[in-house]
Every structure is written in structure tokens, then in C-alpha cells.
Amino acid sequence: MHQINFMNTKILNMNKIAFITGINGMDGSHLADLLLTRGYKVYGMERRSSNANDVNTKHLKDKITILNGDMTDQNSLLRCLKECNPDEVYNLAAQSFVGESWNTPEHTSEVTGLGVLRMLEAIREYNPKIKFYQASSSEMFGRMVENPAKETTPFYPRSPYGVSKLYGHWITKNYRESYDMFACSGILFNHESERRGIEFVTRKISDGVARIKLGLTDHISLGNLDAKRDWGYAPDYVEAMWMMLQQETPEDYVIATGETHSIRDFLTEAFNHVGIADWEPYIKQDPRFMRPAEVDVLRGDYTKAKEEMEWVPQTNFSELVKKMVDNDLKLLSNV
Ligand code: NAP
Ligand code: GDD
Asked: What gap in Å lies between CA 172 and CA 8, rounded to an integer?
């Protein structure tokens, strides 16, 4: 297990500036929490929306600076860099919902794929010495040519989202090799937390189970219950992002737990936690939540991250599910 000396890292990073896109997302908010404890000055980018979207970042209001920009607008990215003059850029912004990527494939490609190119170009123009982290995804492995998947496993994406992420991954590698930039990708397997968006299956289940326990609903509507994912805890994973940018050379790393569990396993664990053993009567299968092409199983091999960065996951599957269900019980009890 890695040991970080927090006092020392805080002093070392005291004058460092980080710029995070996708600040209001799950990972963006956890990464900001982490970098503040490490002494960074943190800037986050959000896009304009008609309603405030700060549920994950309300607690950071006076601690970070928000800049306005959009991954589809090259000039806005360059302006943000000029406004904050960062040492490190973490590109977490994306249309990140796989299911939605079949409804809006062109938009997904613009934001999740070409958006990466726009940011790399902005960095190249403003200051090519900036260190760049790209949020690559296990969705790029899709049909899993090798199980568990590692950095050298061939890719086989199964969704417009996965294809867009693959573009972002390769253009990051290409800019590293073409322009000698410190640009790297973390190939992160699924990770979740109390701040996960409600449309993703884990949060949908933790919220649904809490509602059933509190008598607020009598069912959860779901799609494919047999898909398997390698689920970790987001706060553990944002630490790996930071570690990648502290390495001597830019490299890509798989970040995962090495375990895989089905949606059924998640349901069993979540319902058990609230004292319900027979959960099947509470589930309605709804074809609206089935996908045109499914990723049946994902499992990652994080050996490289462990050996080179001493990164290991700290939170196991059972702990993750309990944290999420407990959080939703608390949120719904306070309504
Ligand atoms: P998330 O909660 O969906 O956050 C994504 C963020 O991107 C949101 O804040 C969103 O802003 C922003 N965004 C979307 N379109 C944008 C645009 N055109 N311009 C600027 N910002 C835009 O995702 P996450 O789970 O934190 O994931 C962070 C990153 O890691 C994403 O790139 C995701 O694809 C990738 N990833 C996630 C996982 C995972 O399991 N969580 C695994 C591998 C890779 P709005 O709030 O305005 O929509
Ligand atoms: N969202 C959702 N809703 N998924 C469901 C449902 C449902 O009602 N029922 C079953 N599933 C299944 C999906 O078909 C999929 O196989 C699995 O649950 C996980 O779906 P999501 O939670 O939406 O996550 P994902 O694996 O597709 O994508 C997430 O992980 C990727 C990394 O592998 C996202 O965070 C991506 O941004 C990320 O790159």
C-alpha cells in the first residue's frame, strides 16, 4: 500500500496551478478536493447552463476559481489557459454517458473526441510545457480481446462514446510523440462514488434501493443485469491521475481493481445492506435501458500502476456499494 506524506506533498506543490475541465462532474470534484489538500491552486472549467449545476462543487465555492469554457469551442479553451496559466491540465470533460452516445453520436464525438484535440492544440499554442492528463476509458477495450486488459491489450470499442475516447487516447499519444509534450492517458475502469450521476447504473441502484427501503417507490427499472464491470471508488482513482503527472516521463496506465462483478451482484450487495434478501420482485426489466451493442464484461490489470507508481485501490466492492447506499439513504431521509 502506498504511503503519501501529506505535509511534504503540500509544501512541494504550494505554488502549482491545476486546471480541471469537467469540474462539476464526479471526478472533477473529487480531484479538486485532492489537489487542494496537496497545496494546489485549482481552476475548474464549466460550460454555461441555464441552471446551476454545482451539486458536486458547492462545498468548493470559495476554494477554487471557476472559468467558463466549452470543449466544442477552441478559443474558449485557449482563453481559459491564459486566464489561469496552469502547470497541469486534467481533461475530464466529456459526454460521458455511454447510452446517450447512440442518441447523439456526432455531439459525443465533438466533445469526447475532438475536444481532446482542441485542448492539446490550445496547450501547444499557449505553453507546450504544461503537463496534460487525458481521461481515457476501459470502454475502449469494449469486446475485451484479452481479460484482464492491460496497457498493451488491443482496443475494440463498442459504442460511439468508446470510439470517441479512442480518438482522444491516440491523439494524446500522437501529440506526446510529435511535439515531445508531457501528455498521458489514464485508462480508468468504472469508478463510482456518492457523487455519481443518477443515470449511471450504480447510482440508479443505490438511489432506488434507498427509496424502496424508505417506502418511496416499489421498483427499479433496469436493462441488462448480466453485464459485468470492474468497479472502483472514484477518490482512489483521482489520486492515480495526479500520480501520473508526477512521474518523470509521460506514460499511459490502466487503473482498475482487477475484480469484476455483475449488475446482479451489485443489486444483491445493495439490497442485502438494507436487509432485503429477495430483491427480484423489486426489479422491472425495461428495454429502453438495453444498448444496441453491449460491453459484456470489463476487468483491468493495474500491475503497471502498482509497480511504477505504487498505486493500489483502497476501497473494495462491498465497501463501495455500502457507501453509496448509505449516502442515498441519508440524502432521501433529509428531504
Ligand atoms: P461526469 O460526472 O459525467 O462529468 C463530465 C463533465 O464534463 C461534466 O462536468 C460535464 O458538464 C462536462 N462536460 C460535458 N460536455 C462538456 C462540454 N462540451 N464542455 C465542457 N464541459 C463539458 O463524468 P465522470 O464520471 O466524472 O468522468 C470524468 C471523465 O472520465 C470523463 O471524461 C469520462 O468520460 C471519463 N471516465 C470516467 C469513468 C468512470 O467510470 N467514471 C471511467 C473512465 C473514464 P455538465 O455538468 O455541464 O454536463
Ligand atoms: N446506465 C444504465 N442504466 N446502465 C444499465 C442499466 C440502466 O438502467 N441497466 C443495466 N445497465 C448496464 C449497462 O448496459 C452497462 O452494461 C452497465 O450497466 C454499466 O452502465 P453504466 O453505469 O451506464 O456505465 P458504463 O460502463 O456504460 O460507462 C461508465 O464506465 C465507463 C468506463 O468503463 C461511464 O462512466 C463511462 O464514462 C466510462 O468511460
From this structure: 31
For ligand 2, pick from 190, 207, 231, 255 the residue to mutate: most ligand atoms within 8 Å of CB.
190
What is the SS3 assignment for 1? coil
Share of the chain above pLDDT 90, in %: 93
The minimum-distance atom of ligand 2 relative to the CA of 286 is 8
pLDDT per residue over 213-267, tens digit each?
999 999 999 999 999 999 999 999 999 999 999 999 999 999 999 999 999 999 9
Residue type at position 50: S
The grid cell for 5 is 506524506
Residue 190: left if φ>0, alpha if ψ -120 to 50, beta else—which one? beta
Could you check whether the bond before residue 292 is cis, i.e. omega within 30 degrees of 0?
Answer: no
Q: Is the pLDDT of residue 6 over 80?
A: no
**Residues annotated as catalytic (active site), given as ranges:** 137, 139, 161
What is the tens place of the pLDDT at every residue in 121-151? 999 999 999 999 999 999 999 999 999 999 9
User: What is the Cα–Cα distance from 264 to 146, expressed in whole angstroms?
Assistant: 23
How wide is the angle at C-alpha 271 spanned by C-alphas 268 and 277, nearest 5°?
A: 75
Full set of structural domains in the chain with CATH:
8-193+232-258+299-315 (3.40.50.720), 201-226+261-297+323-333 (3.90.25.10)
Residue 213 is which amino acid?
A: K
Mean pLDDT of the region 153-164: 98
Distance CA 189, CA 171 (A): 20
